[in-house]
């Protein structure tokens, strides 16, 4: 079993940056695909970024490509999402998730964090 805890959310002005971190418990972290999803008020949860268990494969939603960078450190059991040039439409609760397979579908993810709020506003 994996427990996930996100941190790093907050309020930032448009064009600013934030770095979200996800700390995982358990000895099997390095075997899991990790991803970030987000959910804005009144909207469905949507895929943001994914990284394979080894870190060699990564993919991003078109809406964040070129602005967000996902990385992981299997020695520290952490996954970080660097978010640059933030826009008001990035405002959402961001969730870290772990899955046993490489998939951008939220249904594939068994383990979820509690979420961290990101608000982009002037």
Tell me about this structure.
It is a single chain. The chain has 122 residues and is an all-beta fold. It contains no helices and eleven strands. Strands 2, 4, 5, 6, 9, 10 and 11 form a seven-stranded mixed β-sheet that branches. It has a four-stranded antiparallel β-sheet with strand order 1-3-8-7, with no helix packed on it. Strand 4 (33-39) and strand 5 (46-51) form a beta hairpin. The mean pLDDT is 96.
Look at the structure and give the mean pLDDT.
96
Supply the number of helical segments.
Answer: 0
Structural class: mainly beta
The counted number of beta strands is 11
Could you give a quick summary of the protein structure above?
With 122 residues, this protein is mostly beta strands.
Name a few traits of the molecule:
122 residues; mainly beta; 7-stranded mixed sheet; 4-stranded antiparallel sheet
